[in-house]
Amino acid sequence: MSSNLSPQSEADEPARVLLESLLRVPHIRNNVAHVHEIPPREAKYGEFPGDLDPRLIQALQARGYNRPYTHQAAAIQHAMNEKNVVVVTPTASGKTLCFNVPVIQRVLEEPEARALYLFPTKALAQDQYGELHQLTQAADGQIKVYTFDGDTPSSARKAIRSAGSLILTNPDMLHVGILPLHTQWIRLFENLRYIVIDEIHAYRGVFGSHVANVLRRLQRICAFYGSAPTFICASATIANPREISEQLLGADVELVSENGAPSGRKYFMLYNPPVINEELGIRRGVVNETRRLAARTLAAEAQTIVFARSRMRVEVLLNYLRKTMRKLHKNPMRVAGYRGGYLPNERRLIEQGVKSGEILGVVSTNALELGIDIGQLRVAIIAGYPGSISATWQQAGRAGRKAESSLAIMVASSAPLDQYLAANPHFLFGQAPESAVVNPDHVQIYAEHVKCAAFELPFEDGEHFGGFHPLPLLQYLEDQQILRHTGNRWHWSSDVYPSEHVSLRSASSENFVVVNTSDRNQVMAEVDFDSAPMLIHTEAIYMHLGETYYIDKLDWDRRTAYARPQQSDYYTDALSKTDIRVLRVDQTCDAFAASSEDETASEDQPSTKHERLKAGEEYPLTATPTAGLPASKDLPPYGPEEIRRQMQGSGPEENEAGIPLPAATVPMIGQPMLSRNFGEVVVSTLVAKFKKIRFETHENIGYGDVSVPVLETQTEAYWLTLSAETKDRIEVAGGDLGAALNGMATLLAQAAPLHLLCDPSDLRAVPMVRAPHDDLPAVYLCDRYPGGIGLARKFFDIDLQVLAAARDILAGCPCATGCPSCVGPEIELGTNAKRGAMILLESIVRRAG
Q1: CA-CA distance, 357 to 52, in Å (whole number)?
Q2: 832: three-class secondary structure by DSSP
Q3: In b/e form, how buried is each residue of 87-105, taking b as 16+ CB within 10 angstroms?
Q4: Is residue 664 over pLDDT 50?
């Protein structure tokens, strides 16, 4: 174990006492990879502007705000000078005051002034409402603050539109419920002085690209009504806050990044679960180890938040920890879950319970990663690397949100990047946070919002949208009878309400509801469209608030699942099957040649099956870096430095673990790669079966069938086609083609997001032993977003670079035959998976290089 702990003089701090108690437990101490101490920080103060309204000063002082921190003072001054500003400081540094003070000051000066607050989630808007409402009431009881989202009753909406001074909403509601109905919001748009965008770092990838276009539409409508609002943005620590803000706003932005807020001492423990099978490279599961650590912090009455990577893990951990609380003779209901799908009133009660201390522990997805005020927690436990440095520090920052000491623990999973972090903790503690990336001009996204903008206001000849003149697109829409050109304007002529058909976050805007048949069919939860086949199929065990429910029926057409309470000692895990049909090959090249255009349609080709050694399971896209990681040249290498030197042509013949390096031991099988391709495909996903998994032992106790429609997505894909001789050659060399392809797909799914600067959920990796349209082995990498967002096309340009990175990841893993940290566990893929994948990758990379 490495550490930078200070001397024992700090031992009286509660977090230090808790840390020391954990380190005295042998099975914990022996598996701690690193302990890092972050010293406390003193506050740095500035001054409020001298011309603040006395009523506002009095209201601030009544709430304990006598002097602003330096970053608050700077941001307030920029905003009051009508300069766009982004404030970038850590969690719990008081960013809210940066936008509330200038907004309230302006409304006090100009009672007709309006402000629009945008939060990435409804929950965050509701949370911020309380603080803003109290401050405005203390300053001037006439200032009306409202939230406006999908939960707002129809009866209240007219009053909000006419009387609301400060409107708190989210991008989705702005997109579908405000901008298309701007004629009902004339008072807002004519008098809009400030637009506040909180948690701006959340607007990245596909979601951020959509939001950038929503903001273009917003500014277009503001200009129509004669207003030019100032933007005030707040962000967690990322590498490019000014750049991402300017991309989203399309305007210059002032940056405030020097944090003046105080913070308590923070301890960060990096915990790596023990290996329980050295031969297979299997470690104890991240869920069980998280449970054991959380049990000790809860037993010590340390208020704890646990972050899990999925809704299923939240419910499983919640179930486990409530059992633990019973064993500790504590009230099990003092541990709660928090995730998407819970009803709004349930989430509010949980937030209030955590803030008051009534709830001792909360298990959450990243839904609580953002700045919802849940008070001061002592411990944050992160079950698996969240995928980015920024997200890690956001989650760790949920503990110790004031000046008290706190403890954060990250429990590494068996995933490659988690294991790399355990071996190289400097990546977390010495590496700069990632950049956020958006592409608002991606053709599919841009086109959808041009349609929405045209519905809202006619385009004039020569008018630009986001820096481009969309004339070709307008002409195309006229040909489709969606627009008509009259005089010098392009008018909407369709009876379609376009924003209803554009989801900012997913392929479908439809949700399913889960009703409790034992409670008069009351709606108990919502499930998004894509997750419904996996979570609420007939005979599924659905977990909600730590309780188990049996799904008697999923009515697909009514988008409703019927559930009843049932005590269950198992949970269900659905298995999916993926087919791919090639529609068109846009670009193709052989193993070494430059790309060439090939517009040959392939409509009649049979579908390509996703073949798995274990029937029906979709290839997982887990344990990969997420959006915004820096380019590989800027990162520390995967695995030992000796491996990196060997790849550059120097260094020893074995790595630190004694594993021979590829150049010395991997047989070459000629060039296995026949062609590299890019084109349009249809991806069909069918959830066909589910497993029953016992809670405590995780053993598989049975299967069941699932009957749901096939979900189809037309998108873009890259695929690597291998030669017909590859199967025989790889078997002669001691590998297995099926296992090798599965391992290679795993590695590409791990390496691709690092180079594409995307979220791993944006991609789908599909290995195939034999593609029916040409009977050849292949690996597909598909955009998950309908129509594609350019990831597969970009991968086509850098595929050899990513293949080399995948080879390096595999070479750096010390296992002998394959493990969850590289190609996957041997028990699933067979003993030849690692060897086969290395033979393929080494042969491709060295021949192509």
Answers
A1: 36
A2: coil
A3: bbbbbbbbbbbbbbbbbbb
A4: no
Burial pattern 563-581, b for ≥16 Cβ within 10 A else e, equals beeeebebbbbbbbbbbbb
- Residue 320 in this model has a pLDDT that exceeds 50: yes
- pLDDT confidence band for 652 (50 / 70 / 90): very low
Position 625 pLDDT exceeds 50: no
Alpha carbon 590 to its chain's center: 35
Residues in the chain: 849
Give the pLDDT of residue 8: 56
pLDDT in tens, 612-623: 333 333 333 323
**Phi and psi, residue 216, nearest 5°:** -60, -45
Q: What is the largest CA-CA distance in the chain?
A: 84
- Judge: domain 2-30+264-430, CATH 3.40.1190.10: no
Angle formed by the axes of helices 791-812 and 737-756, to 10°? 120
Task: Record the tokens describing residue 531, joined without a space.
Answer: 């997750």
CATH superfamily of 54-256: P-loop containing nucleotide triphosphate hydrolases (3.40.50.300)
Strand order in the sheet with 266-271: 2-3, 32-38, 266-271, 406-411, 379-383, 304-307, 361-364, 335-338
The predicted model scores a pTM of 0.76
Check whether 239 has a pLDDT greater than 70. yes
Report the pLDDT value the prediction gives residue 44, as an integer from 0 to 100. 95
The string of pLDDT tens digits covering residues 399-429 is 986 668 999 999 998 877 788 788 878 878 8
Place of tokens 């960060």: 268
Residue 662 parent element (H or E): helix 662-665
Q: Could you tell me the two tokens for 521?
A: 């069919």
Task: Sheet containing 560-565: give its strands across.
Answer: 522-528, 511-516, 560-565, 547-555, 541-544
Contact 353, 336 (CB under 8 A): yes
